Amino acid sequence: MKTGVIVFPGSNCDRDAQMALRQVTGRDPAMVWHKDGELPKGLDLIVLPGGFSYGDYLRSGAMAAASPIGDAIRAYVAKGGYLLAVCNGFQVATEMGLLPGALLRNASLNFVCRPQPLAITSNSSAFTAGYKSQREVSFPIAHHDGNYYADALTLDRLEGEGRVAFRYLGNPNGSARDIAGLLSENGRVLGMMPHPERAMGGQEGGNDGLKLFESLMVAA
C-alpha cells in the first residue's frame, strides 16, 4: 500500500500521520510538500493532517485549499482515490470542495483537547468496516474550530445518504447533529475532527484508531 501525507506550513500532526501509516503499512509514506504541485504516482491513500495550516489566517483551511497541490488532490479524489482528512485536514477538505459544509468556532469559543467518545454510525464504509459490531470508539480531539455546520437541507441529505460516519457523544463543539466524521458521496473521502492517528496503541491515545487504518488497508 502506497500512501502520502500532505504537508502545509503550520501542519503539526503530519509526523503523527507518518508514524501511523508506517505502523500499519510497514513503509514510510511520501511526505508531500504543498508547493510540489503534483502527487507521487500510484498512491492508494492520502492524508491531510491536522495542525494550523498558514496559521489559520483568513479562516481555517482556506489558504491551504489554494495551495499548488490542491488541483492534484482534487484530481486524485475525482478518480476515486482514498483520502483521510483529519482536524485541520477536514477544514481544508471542506474549503477545497471535497466535502460539504464548513467548520466553525466551537460553541464554547474555547480550544478543546481531551479523549473524546464517539459513536460509529455505520460499519460498512471503507474507513469503519474493521470495527465490525463495535459501536463506540475514543479518539483524542484537539481543536478550536471543530463545530461542523451545514444548512438543514444539506444535513438532511447527508443523513439520508448515510454519510455521517462518526458522531460525538456529548458533543463538545456544538456540532450540527453531533457530526464528528463525514464521508464523501462515493465513500472514499472521510473528514473528521478527532485524531485516529493518535490512537494507534500508544500509552496516551488508546488503540481505537488502528482499526480505521487497517480498514483502509483492506479497502485500498
Biggest pleated-sheet summary: 9 strands, mixed
- The CATH topology label is Rossmann fold
* Total domain count: 1
Low-confidence stretches: none
Specify the helix fraction band.
10-25%
Portion in strands: 25-35%
Give the mean pLDDT: 95
Number of helices: 6
Measure the end-to-end span: 7 Å
CA gyration radius, whole angstroms: 16 Å
Structural class: alpha/beta
CATH superfamily: Class I glutamine amidotransferase (GATase) domain
- What is the CATH top level name? Alpha Beta
The CATH architecture can be named as 3-Layer(aba) Sandwich
Order of helices and strands: EHEEHHEHEEEEHEEEH
Number of strand segments: 11
Protein architecture, described:
- With 220 residues, the protein is of the alpha/beta class.
- It has one domain: 3-Layer(aba) Sandwich (Rossmann fold).
- It contains six helices and eleven strands.
- The strands form two sheets. Strands 2-1-3-4-11-10-9-6-7 form a nine-stranded mixed beta sheet, with helices on both faces. The protein has a two-stranded antiparallel sheet with strand order 5-8.
- The mean pLDDT is 95.
Please summarize what this structure is.
The protein has 220 residues and is an alpha/beta fold. The chain has a single domain, classed as Rossmann fold. Helix content is 25%, strand content 25%.
